[in-house]
Design a protein that fits this description.
- One of its GO terms (biological process) is cobalamin biosynthetic process.
- Belongs to the CobB/CobQ family. CobQ subfamily.
- This is Cobyric acid synthase.
- Pathway: Cofactor biosynthesis; adenosylcobalamin biosynthesis.
- It is built from 15 helices and 27 strands.
- The chain is of the alpha/beta class.
- It has two domains: about 270 residues, P-loop containing nucleotide triphosphate hydrolases (Rossmann fold, 3-Layer(aba) Sandwich); about 200 residues, 3-Layer(aba) Sandwich (Rossmann fold), CATH 3.40.50.880.
- The strands form seven sheets. It has a seven-stranded mixed sheet with strand order 15-13-16-18-27-26-25. A six-stranded parallel sheet has the order 2-9-1-10-11-12, with helices on both faces.
- A hairpin with a 2-residue loop joins strand 22 and strand 23.
Length: about 500
């Protein structure tokens, strides 16, 4: 039994993450013990496992879809881009260094070995492992060192299903072109296509699907309809336009809408902190890049960032510092989370992340910050507003509190709150209590819905993904691929015959 499958995509944001999650949920509902896997993930959206390892948030969501506890082996390599063109490399949940693109290339053979070890371990412990690729498998300039797409598939013997986003247009060209650019050896592992985000009459699409099958020798294994409102743990900035856009703006529990504005930092991280606000009836969450976009907000949230000092400079360049100061002086609510909390303090000393040394903060909280080389990773538990709060921490900046009221691990002064805890707003009781105070300070007749449960909303969306696969994909064909891999060589000789190339090791 192959017991594994790789979900690749024609582009970033084609839907690999949600399709992987949907397959995991479909399988676990059939009684299969399944685990997700992504060898290499480039994302600023991460979470901490119970044993203190940092992995991509998408793999945490996929583990939830599989109803298993997330672990470092599910995402052995995580790249976190910084402000200087370099990325922090997180290996098996722990940071191991900062690299540029060329430096990272030299590390790939070692990282592929570690990733294959993790995949083999998961395959031993689970009935099935559903792997997610990264970007596109046809990035031919990167194929020699690929560890997440065809490089992984070749090394581990994985059948590959390629997802294409038809909503963008050009899906047939993208699928044909993806296959045409692969070597003959890579092509052998591509078993079929999944058309994603389809709107309209399937009868009009049918001739194109048949022609794609004829041209490539691979069948279309499903046409998945567009599912609006699935703000499931967006992985990267391509998802931000929809990540917080699906709140029920008019709710039955209050006459007023509560408006939340969030500065869209260039190195924004862990923006899933906003998901729980966005799903609250009567709460409108929107991104802000100009001072006037903060003007009518009842709450401004400064989110996490991979580059606190650089994004603080961006905030000032955009003219957002003055309205924040005016809000604080007028007693209008501001919440800072992790990097956003660090910005609210009096001074930031950073010789680690930015190398900038001492930098003046916004001065809205009585705190100072000093960056340490050791990253703080944890799953803290505490209490606020009489409610139990669970969260997670991922930061280099260590905050010293020099006054104000205690608030989780951070502090509060007037209408300004700050905490290093991500995920706090996912706790329903705490979120409702916090929003009640925000509404009171903002003078809004807003009452949080007493029966809104964030965990239940996420579970319902994961079930919708399972339904998506079960109802619109050829699950018999998927199961055959999982059980037996690709059966024989699939033909494909496009004009120009790029398939005639051969592979030698990992080099074209």
């Amino acid at each position: 039994m192959s017991n594994a499958l790789l979900v690749a995509g024609t582009t970033s944001d084609a839907g690999k993450s949600v399709v992987t999650a949907g397959i995991c949920r479909w399988l676990v509902r059939r009684g299969v013990k399944v685990a997700p896997f992504k060898a290499q993930n480039m994302s600023l959206n991460s979470m901490v496992t119970l044993d203190g390892a940092e992995i991509g948030r998408a793999q945490v969501m996929q583990a939830q879809a599989a109803r298993v506890e997330p672990e470092a082996a599910m995402n052995p390599v995580l790249l976190k881009p910084g402000a200087d063109g370099r990325s922090q490399v997180v290996l098996l949940g722990r940071p191991v260094g900062e690299v540029g693109a060329l430096d990272y290339r030299d590390r790939k053979p070692y990282l592929l070995e570690r990733s294959l070890e993790c995949l083999a371990d998961l395959r031993r412990r689970f009935d099935v492992v559903i792997c997610e690729g990264a970007g596109s498998p046809a990035e031919i300039n990167l194929r020699a060192g690929d560890i997440a797409n065809m490089g992984l598939a070749r090394a581990a013997g994985l059948p590959v299903v390629v997802v294409g986003d038809i909503d963008r247009g050009g899906v047939f060209a993208a699928m044909f072109g993806t296959l045409a650019l692969l070597s003959a050896e890579d092509q052998k592992l591509v078993a079929g296509w999944l058309v994603n985000k389809f709107r309209g009459d399937a009868r009009l699409l049918r001739p194109g699907l048949d022609m794609l099958h004829e041209l490539t020798g691979r069948p279309v294994l499903g046409t998945l309809p567009m599912l609006p409102g699935l703000w499931l743990d967006a992985e990267d900035s391509l998802d931000l336009s929809t990540a917080v856009a699906h709140a029920e703006v008019v709710g039955p529990y209050g006459a007023d809408v509560l408006r939340v504005a969030v500065p869209r930092f260039p190195r924004l991280s862990n923006f899933t902190d906003l998901d729980a606000l966005a799903q609250e009836p009567g709460v409108l969450v929107r991104w802000a890049t100009r001072p006037e976009e903060l003007a009518d907000a009842d709450l401004v949230v400064l989110p996490g960032t991979r580059a606190t000092v650089a994004d603080l400079a961006w905030l000032r360049e955009r003219g957002l510092e003055r309205p924040l100061r005016e809000r604080a002086a007028a007693g209008r609510p501001v919440l800072g989370i992790c990097g956003g909390y660090q910005m609210l303090g009096r001074r930031i000393t950073d010789f680690v992340e930015s190398g900038s040394g001492p930098v003046d903060g916004l001065g809205l909280l009585p705190t100072t910050v000093e960056f340490g080389r050791e990253k703080v990773l944890g799953r803290p538990v505490g209490e606020a507003y009489g409610e139990r709060v669970e969260g997670y921490e991922i930061h280099h900046g260590v905050v010293a509190v020099e006054g104000g009221e205690a608030f989780l691990d951070g502090c509060r002064e007037g209408a300004v709150w700050g905490t290093t805890w991500h995920g706090a707003l996912e706790n329903d009781g705490f979120r409702r209590a916090f929003l009640r105070e925000v509404a009171a300070l903002a003078g809004r007749a807003f009452v949080p819905a007493p029966d809104t449960a964030f965990a239940a909303a996420r579970e319902a969306r994961l079930n919708r993904l399972g339904d998506l696969i079960e109802e619109h994909a050829d699950t018999d064909a998927l199961w055959r691929l999982i059980e037996g891999g690709v059966d024989g060589e699939l033909p494909f000789v496009p004009p120009g015959a790029p398939a005639a190339r051969t592979m030698e090791g990992d080099r074209l």
